[in-house]
C-alpha cells in the first residue's frame, strides 16, 4: 500500500517497516456511548463533557459553561488517558477530542462516542487521524442520512487508515505535539493581547486614563450626545435587486461578505429587494445577541464595495466622518448597554434578539471627548489591533503548517 511523503527513521538510522491498513475498531477497545444525563451546576469535581464543550478550532476542552452530570455517576462513563471522544450526531458529527489528565475528572455525554486506544498504538497518533482532510471526507460521506446527520459506533469502528509501527507512531506524535505546543503558545499570546486591549478600552472609555494634548495641556471634559444627534438612518433599498454583495454583521468578525462568512450565499437572487444598501463608513446594528455581543454587534462597514444587509439590521450614517473611527470603538464597549436594559426592549419576537426600535436606537447615549482626543483613543486602539492581527496571522501560519504536515505524514 502507499506510504506518506514524509517519514521518520529509527534511532539507529534504519528505515521503519511499511505501513498497514487498519480500522479504528482494530486499534481500539469496543467503542461505547456516553451517559444520558441532564447537565447540572458544576459540583467542583465531576465535569460533564458534551459536544458543545469541545472547541471547534483547537479540539480542546472549553473553559466556560462548566457543568456536572445529574443523577448517579457510573465510572464506566469516565474519560481516561488513551480515550478519544467522537461526536456522533448533528452538525458537529466527526468532531474529536483527545483526553489529557490535566482535563480533570470527565464524564462524557450520550451524543459522544468513546474510543479507547489500545496500548499497541499511540493515542495521539490515532487522534491525529481525525484532523485530516481524508477523515473529514469520510465523515461527510458516512454521515449522509435522511434528516439529522450522524455516525454510530459501528460506523466509526469501520473507518480505516494506514498505520506504521508503534515506534514510528510515537515519533510522529512527538513531532506533531511539538508543533501543537508552538500553536498553543501563539494562541496564548493572542489571548493575552486581547485581554490587554479589553483592559485598555475599559480604562479609556471610563476616563480612568486620559490623553493629553500634544502641548501637554488637558483636553476638555467629555460631553454626551445621542445616536439620533450623531447619525442619520440609512433608508436606501436594493429595489431592483442589482446589488448582490450581501453583508453579514458578525460579533467576532464585523461586517463581512456573506459568502466569506458562511462559505456560501444564504440570500439568493430575488429575495434581496428589501435589503438596505450600505456604503463605506456606514454603521450597522444587528439585534441578534451572542456571548461576545450581549446586546448585538454594532459595527462600521470598512469595505469599498457597496453592500446590502438584511432589513432586520439598523443602518446609520454619521453626520461627521471624522468621528467615525472613535464611534466604531465606542460601540465595541459596553458603555451603551445599561441604556438598553433600563429602557426596555431587551427581547423581541425571539428571545435571542433585542427588540430595537427607532426611538430606542435614537436615544442610545454616546460619550464624546473632543475630536483630538477621539483621534488619540482611536489611534491607540488601532495600534493594539494591528499587533493582535499580526499575532493572529502567525497563529494562522502555524495552523496551516500543521495541516500541511498532516497531509505529508499520513497516507
What distinguishing features does this structure have?
single chain, 411 residues, alpha+beta, Adenine-n6-DNA-methyltransferase TaqI, Chain A, domain 2, Helix Hairpins, 3 domains, four-stranded antiparallel β-sheet, 11 helices, 21 strands, elongated
Description:
- This protein is of the alpha+beta class.
- It has 3 domains: 144 residues, DNA methylase specificity domains (Adenine-n6-DNA-methyltransferase TaqI, Chain A, domain 2, Alpha-Beta Complex); 92 residues, Orthogonal Bundle (Helix Hairpins), CATH 1.10.287.1120; 146 residues, DNA methylase specificity domains (Adenine-n6-DNA-methyltransferase TaqI, Chain A, domain 2, Alpha-Beta Complex), CATH 3.90.220.20.
- 32% of the residues lie in helices and 18% in strands.
- Strand 7 and strand 8 form a beta hairpin.
- Helix 5 runs antiparallel to helix 11.
- It is elongated, with a radius of gyration of 26 Å.
Brief rundown of the structure:
The protein is an alpha+beta fold and 411 residues long. 32% of the residues lie in helices and 18% in strands.
Q: Give the DSSP E fraction (strand runs of 2 or more residues).
A: 15-25%
CATH superfamily of the largest domain: DNA methylase specificity domains
Strand arrangement across the biggest beta sheet? 2-10-7-8
Question: What's the number of helices?
Answer: 11
How far is it from the N-terminal to the C-terminal residue, by CA?
A: 9 Å
Query: How would you describe the shape?
Result: elongated
Average pLDDT for all residues? 92
* Structure classification: alpha+beta
Cα radius of gyration in angstroms: 26 Å
CATH topology of the largest domain: Adenine-n6-DNA-methyltransferase TaqI, Chain A, domain 2
Number of strands: 21
Can you give the helix content as a percent range?
25-40%
Count of discrete domains: 3
CATH class of the largest domain: Alpha Beta
Low-confidence stretches: none
Largest sheet: 4 strands, antiparallel
CATH architecture of the largest domain: Alpha-Beta Complex
Amino acid at each position: 500500500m502507499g506510504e506518506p511523503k514524509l517519514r521518520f527513521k529509527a534511532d539507529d538510522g534504519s528505515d521503519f517497516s511499511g505501513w498497514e491498513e487498519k480500522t479504528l475498531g482494530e486499534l481500539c477497545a469496543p467503542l461505547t456511548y456516553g451517559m444520558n444525563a441532564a447537565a447540572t451546576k458544576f459540583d467542583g469535581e465531576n465535569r460533564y463533557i458534551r459536544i458543545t464543550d469541545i472547541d471547534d478550532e483547537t479540539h480542546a476542552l472549553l473553559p466556560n459553561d462548566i457543568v456536572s452530570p445529574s443523577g448517579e455517576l457510573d465510572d464506566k462513563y469516565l474519560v481516561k488517558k488513551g480515550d478519544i471522544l467522537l461526536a456522533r450526531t448533528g452538525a458537529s458529527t466527526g468532531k474529536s477530542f483527545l483526553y489529557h489528565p490535566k482535563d480533570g475528572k470527565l464524564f462524557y455525554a450520550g451524543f459522544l462516542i468513546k474510543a479507547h486506544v489500545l496500548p499497541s498504538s499511540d493515542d495521539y497518533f490515532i487522534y491525529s487521524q481525525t484532523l485530516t482532510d481524508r477523515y473529514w471526507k469520510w465523515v461527510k460521506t458516512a454521515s449522509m442520512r435522511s434528516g439529522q446527520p450522524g455516525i454510530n459506533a459501528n460506523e466509526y469502528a469501520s473507518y480505516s487508515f494506514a498505520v506504521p509501527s508503534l515506534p514510528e507512531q510515537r515519533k510522529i506524535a512527538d513531532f506533531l505535539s511539538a508543533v501543537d505546543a508552538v500553536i498553543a503558545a501563539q494562541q496564548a499570546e493572542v489571548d493575552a493581547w486581547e485581554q490587554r486591549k479589553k483592559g485598555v478600552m475599559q480604562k479609556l472609555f471610563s476616563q480612568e486614563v486620559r490623553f493629553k494634548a500634544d502641548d501637554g495641556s488637558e483636553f476638555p471634559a467629555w460631553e454626551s450626545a445621542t445616536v439620533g444627534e450623531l447619525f442619520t438612518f440609512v433608508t436606501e433599498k436594493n429595489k431592483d435587486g442589482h446589488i448582490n454583495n450581501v453583508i453579514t454583521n458578525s460579533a467576532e468578525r464585523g461586517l463581512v461578505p456573506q459568502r466569506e462568512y458562511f462559505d456560501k450565499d444564504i440570500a439568493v437572487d430575488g429575495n434581496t429587494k428589501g435589503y438596505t444598501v450600505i456604503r463605506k463608513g456606514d454603521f450597522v446594528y444587528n439585534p441578534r445577541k451572542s456571548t461576545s455581543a450581549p446586546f448585538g454587534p454594532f459595527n462600521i462597514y470598512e469595505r469599498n464595495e457597496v453592500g446590502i444587509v438584511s432589513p432586520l439590521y439598523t443602518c446609520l450614517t454619521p453626520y461627521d466622518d471624522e468621528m467615525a473611527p472613535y464611534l466604531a470603538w465606542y460601540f465595541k464597549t459596553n458603555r451603551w448597554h445599561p441604556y438598553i436594559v433600563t429602557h426596555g426592549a431587551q427581547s423581541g419576537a425571539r428571545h435571542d434578539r433585542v427588540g430595537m426600535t427607532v426611538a430606542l436606537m435614537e436615544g442610545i447615549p454616546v460619550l464624546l471627548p473632543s475630536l483630538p482626543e477621539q483621534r488619540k483613543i482611536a489611534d491607540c486602539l488601532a495600534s493594539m489591533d494591528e499587533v493582535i492581527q499580526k499575532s493572529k496571522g502567525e497563529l494562522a501560519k502555524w495552523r496551516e503548517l500543521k495541516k500541511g504536515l498532516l497531509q505529508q505524514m499520513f497516507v
